[in-house]
């Protein structure tokens, strides 16, 4: 399947050796010829992603894009330091050994290499997802001896520190499992700050002190509160607490100066005044550190909807802080995927048609439904807390009052989703869990397009459809509300994917395509999602609940007509769909029922549906699915390498083109970033 890719990669490698770039007329490689997998280790796969249509951006847009990608990469060290104060010296020591030692084969070297790769994925010594500290599989003596051999300048020692001082600092942090155990502790009953390894609070600051400090700042009458604490480290000096603010002239100044240097170049070539104003406000915020400037920036950013190129750059999400206030530094540069955004525009433009043709009772339908146009984007660079692991959708800003007063931007990142999907092909999953080669071929052919369309219909129409009867409390379904709501949106999407209208509108290529979505959806809802359930547990997460609810309900409805059934072959369970059209009818019946429950606020009906279909797990099937999954050895976590951008200037220094190269390796990329973008 990937044969054509090998040919293409050879060509690319030649280019990169020669002039380090493609010819500018070179088109984005096709899905078939692109190799999505870079390498795998421990529980991770490293992927690369295409940047389709970058070649059709104008020269001016390419110039802007390039400056923004540079601004994004300049902040890399910040996230390492935020995750743990010892991350940077540890990373540097590991990289120095990795690049200098002649021994590349001993167990100790291989252990160190693995550890370094883990550190790169997680921007530090704690697992990016679980937050647990990594356990080194190389010897402490080996590490100490190797550090002493490397050129001392490669260690970038702290001021006044010598090699012994460095070792005294980092050796226990790496090798003593009892310290810095957890990056962000969420366990209740302990001091979350002093038990977390994160560097958002200074030495000696306790949770109680931090909470008191920020509670005092908050004014309950303030209708437009800033995001308190977002851009600072809270420290204790001479018995007093104060904020060490992330800004030029403050904490992380040397990195932020570089960020601003490139943002200024970007502002000068912005696509329009609205975008220029947003970039300039971001620059101002980096200089002032004043959170009012940050809010002003967020408002300008959310209002800039006309620009094709867009970006995030700064202290944004607060998951890394156990108190949920401090922003980790992240950046992403992207441009609107015009073709895919057109897809969501077509859906929105036909919102009323879909509403009218929904199987729900007319009294529960909206007279005037407005679909939401979600923007589909192509990521051009991932950085900071978005790199190497990254989300596939973004919804910002986080400030509640700004969202209420000015709205938010919601985007899905198509080329990252594509990379996940394409990399998963050929991993044996389909062959293991799908009934026959017919289903494998069906999903192979249509799976990507139908899964994107499902997301679009779910987001643009599903959640926007239907209405509550007058006087019904929107929270009437209480704890069952989110499962019912997600089921409603999924059912709306599933029902209409099987309608010829979506083929008429050009959203699916033919009237067979929807079957791929039905097959994967029911296989997931009835079987494969159970791999995430630890034996003995129930299903808690509302998306997982809604999928099982739909799948089990439709399966039960199929008892007589056998539209869908579970068949056992050699002791293994499979989903078999015998009549896709009848499945669609059952989906319509459940949609009508769920819309009725939602519109009338029928709590007991919601309770019964969820408790009977969505929560409980068959223990034997749970274990069977987990065993079959384990056999496939699929890496649960994915990281990415970025493409490499090289600007082309004419002899007068004028920007004339941007080259993109996809061939950089994982270690190669991190070592280059550590050389070129290490400012702390
Ligand atoms: Zn949803």
Question: Which terms would index this structure?
Answer:
680 residues; alpha+beta; five-stranded mixed β-sheet; three-stranded mixed β-sheet; 13% strand; binds zinc ion
Task: Kindly describe this structure.
The longest helix is centred in the middle third of the chain and has 26 residues, at 437-462. This protein is α+β, with helices and mostly antiparallel strands and 680 residues long. It contains 25 helices and 14 strands. The two termini are 45 Å apart. Residues 1-25 have low confidence and may be disordered. Among the domains are: 86-175, no CATH class; 338-637, no CATH class. The protein has a five-stranded mixed β-sheet with strand order 5-6-7-9-8. The chain binds zinc ion (ZN).
Q: Cα distance, first to last residue?
A: 45 Å
- Main pleated sheet: 5 strands, mixed
Shape: globular
Strand content: 5-15%
Structural class: alpha+beta
Topology of this structure?
Layout: H1 3-18, E1 37-41, E2 44-48, H2 59-73, H3 76-83, H4 87-100, H5 107-122, H6 140-149, H7 163-175, H8 207-217, E3 232-237, E4 240-245, H9 253-268, H10 273-288, H11 291-303, E5 309-315, E6 329-336, H12 338-349, H13 351-357, E7 375-384, E8 393-396, H14 400-406, E9 409-413, H15 414-424, H16 429-433, H17 437-462, H18 481-497, H19 500-504, H20 514-526, H21 542-557, E10 564-569, E11 572-577, H22 580-600, H23 603-614, H24 619-632, E12 637-641, E13 644-649, E14 655-661, H25 666-676
Parallel strand pairs: 2-12, 7-9
Antiparallel strand pairs: 1-2, 3-4, 5-6, 6-7, 8-9, 10-11, 13-14
Helix pairs in contact: 2-9, 4-5, 4-6, 6-7, 9-10, 10-11, 12-17, 17-18, 17-20, 18-21, 18-22, 20-21, 21-22, 21-23
Bound molecules: zinc ion (ZN).
């Amino acid at each position: 399947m990937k044969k054509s890719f090998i040919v293409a990669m050879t060509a690319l490698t030649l280019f990169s050796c020669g002039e380090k770039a493609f010819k500018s007329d070179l088109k984005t490689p096709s899905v078939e010829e692109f190799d999505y997998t870079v390498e795998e280790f421990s529980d991770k796969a490293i992927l690369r992603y295409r940047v389709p249509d970058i070649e059709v951006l104008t020269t001016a847009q390419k110039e802007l894009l390039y400056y923004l990608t540079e601004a994004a990469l300049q902040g890399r060290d910040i996230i390492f330091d935020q995750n743990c104060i010892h991350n940077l010296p540890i990373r540097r020591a590991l990289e120095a050994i990795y690049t200098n030692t002649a021994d590349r084969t001993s167990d100790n070297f291989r252990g160190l290499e693995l550890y370094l790769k883990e550190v790169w994925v997680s921007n530090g010594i704690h697992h990016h997802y679980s937050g647990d500290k990594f356990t080194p599989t190389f010897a402490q003596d080996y590490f100490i001896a190797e550090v002493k051999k490397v050129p001392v300048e490669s260690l970038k020692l702290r001021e006044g520190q010598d090699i012994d001082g460095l070792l005294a600092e980092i050796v226990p942090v790496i090798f003593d499992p009892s310290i810095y155990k957890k990056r962000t502790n969420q366990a209740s009953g302990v001091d979350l700050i002093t038990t977390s390894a994160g560097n958002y609070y200074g030495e000696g600051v306790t949770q109680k002190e931090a909470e008191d400090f920020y509670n005092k700042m908050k004014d309950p009458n303030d209708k437009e509160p800033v995001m308190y604490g977002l851009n600072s480290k809270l420290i204790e000096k001479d018995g007093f607490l104060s904020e060490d603010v992330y800004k030029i002239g403050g904490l992380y100044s040397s990195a932020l100066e570089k960020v601003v240097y490139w943002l200024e170049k970007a502002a000068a070539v912005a696509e329009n005044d609205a975008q220029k104003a947003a970039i300039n406000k971001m620059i101002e915020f980096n200089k002032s550190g004043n959170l009012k400037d940050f809010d002003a920036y967020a408002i300008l950013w959310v209002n800039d909807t006309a620009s094709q190129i867009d970006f995030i750059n700064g202290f944004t999400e607060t998951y890394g802080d156990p108190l949920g206030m401090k922003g980790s530094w992240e950046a992403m540069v992207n441009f609107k995927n015009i073709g895919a955004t057109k897809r969501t525009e077509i859906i929105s433009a036909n919102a009323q048609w879909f509403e009218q043709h929904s199987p729900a009772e007319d009294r529960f339908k909206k007279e005037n439904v407005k679909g939401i146009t979600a923007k589909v984007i192509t990521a051009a660079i991932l950085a900071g807390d978005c790199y190497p692991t990254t989300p596939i959708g973004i919804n910002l800003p986080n400030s509640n009052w700004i969202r209420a007063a000015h709205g938010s931007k919601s985007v899905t990142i198509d080329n990252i989703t594509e990379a996940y999907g394409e990399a998963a092909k050929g991993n044996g999953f389909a062959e293991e869990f799908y009934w026959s080669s017919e289903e494998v071929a069906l999903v192979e052919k249509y799976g990507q397009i139908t899964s994107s369309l499902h997301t679009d219909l779910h987001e643009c129409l599903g959640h926007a459809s239907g209405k509550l009867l007058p006087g019904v409390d929107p929270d009437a379904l209480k704890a069952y509300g989110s499962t019912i709501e997600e089921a409603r949106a999924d059912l709306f999407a599933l029902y209409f994917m099987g309608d010829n209208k979506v083929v008429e509108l050009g959203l699916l290529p033919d009237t067979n395509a929807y079957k791929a979505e039905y097959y994967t959806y029911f296989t997931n809802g009835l079987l494969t999602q159970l791999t995430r359930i630890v034996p003995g547990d129930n299903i808690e997460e509302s998306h997982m609940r809604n999928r099982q609810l739909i799948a089990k309900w439709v399966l039960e409805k199929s008892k007589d007509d056998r539209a869908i059934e579970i068949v056992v072959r050699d002791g293994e369970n499979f989903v078999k769909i015998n009549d896709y059209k009848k499945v669609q009818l059952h989906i319509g019946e459940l949609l009508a029922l769920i819309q009725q429950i939602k519109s009338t606020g029928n709590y007991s009906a919601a309770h019964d549906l969820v408790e009977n279909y969505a929560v409980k797990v068959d223990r034997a099937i749970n274990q069977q699915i987990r065993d079959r999954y384990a056999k496939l050895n699929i890496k649960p976590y994915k990281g990415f390498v970025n493409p490499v951008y090289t600007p082309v200037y004419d002899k007068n220094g004028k920007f004339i083109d941007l080259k993109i190269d996809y061939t950089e390796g994982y270690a190669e990329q991190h070592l280059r970033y550590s050389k070129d973008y290490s400012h702390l």
